[in-house]
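Our platform keeps sequence and structure together, in a single record for each protein. Such a record has a labelled line for the sequence and another for the backbone structure tokens. This encoding replaces a full spatial description with a residue-level series of whole-number codes. Below, we set out a record of this kind in full and without editing:
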Amino acid sequence: MSYELLAAVDLGSNSFRLQVARVVDDQIYPLDGLKETVRLAAGLGQGKLLDGPSQLRAIEALSRFNERLRGFAPDQVRAVATNTLRVAKNAPQLLPQAEAALGFPIEVVAGREEARLIYVGVAHTLPNPSSQQLVVDIGGGSTEFIIGRSFEPLALESLYIGCVAFSLRYFPDGRMDKRSLREAELAARRELETIEYGFRSLGWDEAVGSSGTARALLDIMELNGWSQGALTREAMEKLRALLLRVGDVNRLGIAGLRPDRLPVLAGGFAIMSAVFDAFGLERMSFSEGALRLGVLYDLLGRYHHQDLRDATVLQFMRRYQVDQKQAERVRGTAMRLFRALNPAATGEHPDDHPDLQMLSWAACLHELGISVAHAGYHKHSAYIVGNADMPGFSRMDQSRLARIVLAHRGKLEKVNSASADARDWSLILCLRLAVLLHRSREDFTELPLTIERTGSGYQLGARAEWLSASPLTHASLNDELRLWGVIGIDLKLRTARLAAGVMR
């Protein structure tokens, strides 16, 4: 029996969670889990800046996770951050410290990507995933809504309504009355109006809740005998009456209510109540699967070279009518150049080396923008890549990919000013050279250029006979030397009468 360990880290707006799982016959079996109630969203001030105490809580929690993850290889762990780190203006300053504390990279995922991962996790726990499901996941800073069938999401949305944010805004210190509850529910309904029609049009066979708020509400309902196995409208009304009668969740002595859920119960209840009303629900079952399980299954797919990001790139190429033959020419040449610079990147599949994988995607997508306008098409390509919903890609993935795509032609200062990662320059060079060499959109069997690193940059090599027969390419290469010199990277061209086929 094969046996591997994988780990998922969920940096939520309310809690940070670590899930370690074993993989047996391509199935995920949870092995160990840790939870830290960080309440990151509570530290988000009016200027959308995380305060010092919330940052400290985050770093301390991740440091504890670090101990459990010792010995894990980088491709065995995936850490994702959600709404609070999406919106916090000082997240870029916090993330390097957080990654150092955890010991692994952290991806800030977009709302719809978070919704997709949640659905992947939920779908793997459903008794009949072939039926159509409405999945609702109320988090600390946002709530994700998905309609899906047979492991495929049909609609994905993320709204900025979360149990931490709503509890702080409408129920300070846990106090609740009819007015504050009505205001909270109306605020949630206003947000839900944007998706109600589309979701109702698609329809569903069953509504499913996941994550902390749904779990907490179900525990209360079951342990007080109000419902069994699901949240119901009747049980919601009983809890509403109790909350209003007590008037303060801190004085709510009731079975099933965990102390760590007290500060966010009121906000979570208001959002769930609005969801029941907006979608006309009478019953909502619960799934233990959520973001962490979805991350694990997504990671398992990457482990087996079934990366959703590859499928997304192919879909974008089709959607924007990319010349696939030209994309493949550029991709093949760029990857051969990269492998010449990085002899260790010799695997048959691009994801055997993460930088090679990024270069492969950039080559496939570099001409997306031609569908918008040929003039400045690289800018249109970069905008699409950086701003579209791209399933499987984190925001950092997309930002890096957009930067490389933007830099595949034109001046390099625009990328230099964007603080490109030092490791990106070799990817940019390989892509630029590949585009330059395939300007005529023709194939060649042997690379006419050699490439190697030098102490201050890179050196290209070419046969004098080839350069003489290719005056346009020769002139473009000389322009390239100048453009790299402007940003302080030394690029030289050595000519010689060399035998053909100098590069593998």
